[in-house]
């Protein structure tokens, strides 16, 4: 059962391969992430990205009330299909408390441009911790709006990074 999902689309005036090269490069994710929550990102192993590549991130999660929560996460790339799909599953610091957090970028050519669909799904799973039970009950108010705004800004950043300057 999904506890939260969001899908945002934008058209980028650049070919799919140009867009894919940006979204699939973990060294560019701090600049790409519209949430401003990514502090550092490291890829393991270094070199070519593909299924099984691990992405280690230090983040400062922002809550809707303006407070923040420092966390680390280890993600694994699960789909690397140039130039159409890039996806990773987050194994957060609370791995024993969240079933699945998965992010995607889907790219479709539209003439000489690219339609980008940025998507996230969160399945919290079975909970016993009262704090997390409260988070699930109020997820939309606590994190949902922050995630949506961050995803919109991510696509804005991607547009800036991918489109040629005149």
What does this structure look like?
The chain has helices spanning 16-23, 29-32, 130-137, 139-162; strands at 4-12, 38-44, 54-62, 68-81, 85-92, 100-110, 113-123. The protein contains 4 helices and 7 strands, in the order βααββββββαα. The chain is globular and about 50 Å long. 27% of the residues lie in helices and 42% in strands. The protein has one domain (4-162): Alpha-D-Glucose-1,6-Bisphosphate, Chain A, domain 4 (2-Layer Sandwich), CATH 3.30.530. The protein has a 7-stranded antiparallel β-sheet with strand order 1-7-6-5-4-3-2, covered by helices on one side. The protein has 166 residues and is of the alpha+beta class.
Give structural attributes.
single chain, 166 residues, alpha+beta, Alpha-D-Glucose-1,6-Bisphosphate, Chain A, domain 4, seven-stranded antiparallel sheet, 4 helices, 7 strands, 42% strand, globular
What overall geometry do the principal axes of the alpha carbons give? globular
Q: Which H/E pattern describes the elements?
A: EHHEEEEEEHH
Structural class: alpha+beta
Examine the coordinates and then state which fold CATH places here, giving the name of the CATH topology. Alpha-D-Glucose-1,6-Bisphosphate, Chain A, domain 4
Low-confidence stretches: none
Strand residues, percent: 35-45%
> What would you give as the CATH superfamily?
START domain
Sheet with most strands? 7 strands, antiparallel
Number of strands: 7
Helix content class: 25-40%
CATH class: Alpha Beta
Mean pLDDT: 86
Query: What is the helix tally?
Result: 4
The CATH level-2 architecture is identified as: 2-Layer Sandwich
**Number of folding domains?**
1
Strand order of the largest sheet: 1-7-6-5-4-3-2
* Radius of gyration (Å): 16 Å
For the termini, the CA-CA separation is 46 Å
């Amino acid at each position: 059962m999904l506890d939260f999902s969001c899908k945002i689309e934008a058209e980028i005036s650049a070919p799919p391969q140009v867009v894919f090269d940006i979204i699939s490069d973990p060294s560019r994710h701090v600049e790409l992430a519209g949430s401003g929550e990514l502090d550092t990102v490291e890829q393991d192993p270094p070199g070519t990205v593909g299924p099984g590549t691990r992405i280690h991130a230090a983040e400062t999660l922002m809550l809707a009330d303006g407070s923040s929560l420092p966390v680390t996460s280890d993600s694994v790339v699960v789909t690397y299909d140039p130039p159409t799909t890039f996806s990773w599953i987050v194994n957060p610091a609370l791995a024993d408390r969240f079933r699945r957090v998965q992010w995607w970028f889907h790219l479709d050519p539209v003439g000489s441009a690219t339609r980008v669909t940025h998507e996230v799904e969160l399945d919290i799973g079975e909970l016993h911790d009262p704090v997390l039970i409260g988070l699930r009950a109020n997820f939309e108010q606590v994190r949902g709006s922050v995630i949506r705004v961050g995803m919109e800004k991510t696509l804005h950043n991607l547009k800036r990074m991918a489109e040629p300057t005149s």
